[in-house]
């Protein structure tokens, strides 16, 4: 079972549909017991970093999510990706999950914010198995971006500045865009994440 973390700030219905379309059992939950039973953890998110951390704390999920990410494949989507980092500065400074080193700050660009729409992926260092997604278009909606080391970058996108689009540390992944709204390319990217982490917990279908 794939668990989508429900903390009241995610576009969970469309995310669930994306994984169902790939043929997986999916559950939206904030139950720690159910999260522990899952093979993969999905952390979506729409809204501000600070508000998200407060919601996660209210549900007493911050430390459990940190612990679960040490043993299970874990992916953050949009705001969920930003929460993977050490700190965020939206509406004040807040601590994130600290799963990938880095911080989240407002995008420094001459372009209009928020960054909304389709943009191309630039795959870093011919990163396998993502190399086939070079120049593919995916759908972004955000005003803040991660700042992290090159070693954690799988893909970037240009919006008057370099935007980390896909990040990875071990079996923890993040996608700044919305794969569930990015057509066939988005679904295939989720499929790569699932297949590339299947050895961590065994086959999940």
* The first-level CATH class name: Alpha Beta
Main beta sheet strand tally, sense and closure: 8 strands, mixed
Total strand segments: 14
Name the assembly state. single chain
What Rg, in angstroms, do the CA atoms define? Answer: 15 Å
Low-confidence stretches: none
CATH homology-level superfamily: Class I glutamine amidotransferase (GATase) domain
Please count the helical segments: 7
Structural shape: globular
With strands numbered from the N-terminus, the spatial order across the biggest sheet is: 2-1-3-4-14-13-12-9
Helix-strand string = EHEHEHHEHEEEEEEEEEEHH
Strand content: 25-35%
Overall domain count: 1
CATH architecture assignment: 3-Layer(aba) Sandwich
**CATH T-level fold name:** Rossmann fold
Cα separation of the termini = 8 Å
The chain-level structural class is: alpha/beta
Question: How confident is the prediction overall: mean pLDDT?
Answer: 94
Helix content: 25-40%
Outline the structure in words:
The protein is built from 7 helices and 14 strands. The longest helix is centred in the last third of the chain and has 14 residues. The mean pLDDT is 94. Helices cover 28% and strands 32% of the residues. It is of the alpha/beta class and 205 residues long. It has a single domain, classed as Rossmann fold (3-Layer(aba) Sandwich), CATH 3.40.50.880. The termini are close together. An 8-stranded mixed beta sheet has the order 2-1-3-4-14-13-12-9. Strands 6-5-7-11 form a 4-stranded mixed beta sheet, with helices on one face. It has a two-stranded antiparallel ribbon with strand order 8-10.
């Amino acid at each position: 079972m794939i668990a989508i973390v429900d903390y009241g700030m995610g576009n969970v219905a469309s995310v669930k549909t994306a994984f169902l379309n790939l043929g997986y059992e999916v559950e939206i939950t904030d139950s720690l017991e159910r999260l522990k039973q899952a093979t993969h953890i999905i952390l979506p998110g729409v809204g501000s970093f600070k508000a998200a951390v407060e919601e996660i704390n209210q549900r007493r999920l911050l430390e459990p999510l940190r612990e679960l990410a040490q043993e299970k494949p874990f992916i953050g989507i949009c705001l969920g990706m930003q929460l993977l980092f050490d700190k965020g500065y939206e509406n004040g400074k807040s601590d994130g999950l600290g799963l990938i080193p880095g911080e989240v700050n407002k995008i420094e660009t001459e372009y209009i914010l928020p960054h909304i729409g389709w943009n191309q992926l630039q795959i870093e260092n011919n990163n396998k198995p993502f190399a086939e997604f070079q120049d593919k278009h995916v759908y972004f909606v955000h005003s803040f971006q991660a700042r992290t080391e090159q070693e954690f970058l799988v893909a970037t996108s240009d919006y008057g500045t370099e935007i980390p689009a896909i990040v990875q540390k071990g079996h923890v992944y993040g996608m700044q865009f919305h794969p569930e709204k990015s057509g066939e390319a988005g679904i295939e990217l989720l499929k790569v994440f699932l297949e590339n982490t299947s050895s961590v917990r065994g086959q999940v279908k």
